[in-house]
From TrEMBL:
Biased composition (Low complexity): 29-40
Alphabetized GO MF terms: hydrolase activity, acting on glycosyl bonds
Name used for this protein in its record: Six-hairpin glycosidase-like protein
One GO-annotated biological process of the protein: carbohydrate metabolic process
Organism encoding this protein: Mycena alexandri
Signal peptide extent: 1-20
Coiled-coil residue windows: none
InterPro entries linked: 6-hairpin_glycosidase_sf, 6hp_glycosidase-like_sf, GH125
Keywords: Glycosidase, Hydrolase, Signal
Region Disordered, residue ranges: 25-60
Length: 470
């Protein structure tokens, strides 16, 4: 069957039909709902009534049943039960947080079809507006565009159509996410049919951004170079941006500049280290899938493969040459000698020395209270760390005691709602932002599934590893 954008419209229509039968989840998630778990935390069942939405599939429901039977702590089991299906239950129309379901694609054709439709739809948007990361519903959905009052007064160049674009904050990790979604789908299904003209147009636009945003702010004759700017202010949640919306000047390093961080906060310096590390990795994977699918042999595939290989190495070399000082990676640099060491909870540095700094007073956005601690960021404030930082910390250690301490730090700080917040105050267990944050919920479930393979004896009734779909 030829996949068209009508598949996206169908997915959205089904999701909307299910949502019409259920309360708005933002409201629903603000108070405990279903029966409590049998553990000491008595966490409520928080999936939308009347049960699994039409976006869920038998394979995702089976993972929940399998994990509940294996997890030895009923509170952790309830958290997984609430968080694993959260994207499909609540935000499928926004197509985010699909990484959790990748292991199921090879055994679940309906989920694979949905993810393929997501890739096609994202490719259409990226090819039109590669600097933007948030879009209106596709026309095929029949859903009307919504007004984003925070974007109306912001000047963006190149200009955008607000009937198509919801908000045009440029984040290089958004483009990396598209590449990751593509290679994850191919890796699970070996289906290369999404690599069509629409997809190649999007990838070519990504390389356009890479080339433009790797350049310094001034040329040899001090002419100012600007391919994208975003002014902020005038109703935006972010303040006005210096230098006509271009931000701080930068010099060429081989890295790629970004205007915003994954948290939506403005970058202090353009070269965001974790985003560039992700870019290097995803470009390497891009070359891999083109090679494995045979498309790197000729035509568009050959050209893209060559660029991916060149830029992956260039960016990697530049990260090592420009961001590492005393075995600590800077969070942001500008190629002009300035560096900023912090973490805003959206990154997972691989090296022990950097990780130690990020999870200590050495990080200006690390905060610790009596009942909660972690890394946060200016997106909220300095005393509201993100639970996502604790999830990332679990990924970064093999120490059993540390894993359990961090796992229960998260579990004990849901304000009795059984869902993962965006941020949590270090002063009060009832002071948090977003009772429900889809990204954090999916990330938590993904982490538990990682432990199910890496440390089964730590969380299961026995030491037998579990992989979804197998």
């Amino acid at each position: 069957m030829k996949l068209t954008f009508s598949v996206v419209a169908l997915a959205v229509s089904l999701a909307e039909g299910a949502r019409a039968q259920c309360p708005d989840f933002t409201t629903y998630s603000q108070s405990p709902q279903g029966n409590p778990s049998s553990g000491p935390l008595k966490l409520p069942y928080m999936r939308p009534s009347p049960g699994p939405s039409s976006s869920s599939t038998p394979s995702t429901e089976k993972v929940i049943v399998d994990m509940k039977a294996r997890l030895k702590d009923p509170d952790i089991a309830r958290l997984f039960e609430n968080t694993f299906p959260n994207t499909l239950d609540t935000t499928v129309k926004y197509f985010n947080s699909f990484a959790t379901y990748v292991p199921l694609l090879s055994v679940d054709p309906s989920l694979a079809t949905l993810m393929k439709a997501v890739i096609n739809n994202e490719a259409r948007y990226v090819s039109q507006y590669p600097y933007c990361g948030s879009f209106q519903p596709p026309p095929e959905s029949g859903l009307a565009p919504s007004l984003n009052s925070h974007a109306v007064g912001v000047t963006v160049n190149p200009p955008v159509n607000n009937q198509t674009v919801f908000e045009c904050k440029y984040e290089i990790d958004s483009l990396c996410g598209f590449l990751k979604l593509s290679r994850s789908y191919y890796g699970a299904t070996k289906d290369a049919s999404f690599m069509n003209d629409n997809w190649y147009a999007a990838v070519n636009q990504i390389f356009r951004v890479i080339n433009e945003q790797s350049q310094g702010s001034f040329d040899a004759n001090f002419n100012f170079i600007s391919y994208y700017n975003w002014t902020g202010g005038n109703g935006a949640l972010s303040p006005a941006v210096d230098n006509g919306g271009n931000g701080e000047p930068k010099a060429y390093t081989g890295m790629v500049g970004t205007h915003h961080r994954p948290s939506d906060d403005l970058s202090v310096f353009a070269f965001l280290t974790p985003a560039n590390a992700m870019l290097s990795v995803e470009l390497s994977h891009l070359n891999d899938i083109l090679t494995q699918s045979g498309q790197a042999k000729s035509g568009q595939g050959k050209n893209i493969s060559t660029q991916a290989t060149t830029w992956s190495k260039r960016v990697s070399d530049a990260v090592w040459a420009n961001t590492l000082v005393d075995n600590i990676f800077a969070y942001e640099t500008n190629g002009l000698g300035s560096r900023y060491v912090m973490d805003d909870a959206n990154t997972h540095p691989a090296y022990v020395a950097t990780r130690k700094v990020l999870l200590s007073r050495g990080n200006p956005y690390f905060a610790q209270g009596k009942n909660f601690s972690g890394a946060g960021g200016p997106h909220v404030d300095a005393w509201h760390p993100w639970p996502m930082s604790q999830i990332s910390a679990i990924y970064g250690t093999d120490d059993d005691e540390e894993i359990l301490n961090r796992l229960y730090l998260i579990a004990n700080n849901t304000a009795g709602l059984g869902l993962i917040h965006e941020s949590q105050s270090i002063y009060s267990s009832t002071d948090y932002t977003r009772s429900w944050f889809a990204w954090a919920n999916s990330y938590f479930a993904e982490m538990v599934l990682d432990l199910a393979q890496r440390k089964p004896g730590l969380i299961f009734r026995n030491d037998t590893a579990y992989t979804p779909g197998q």
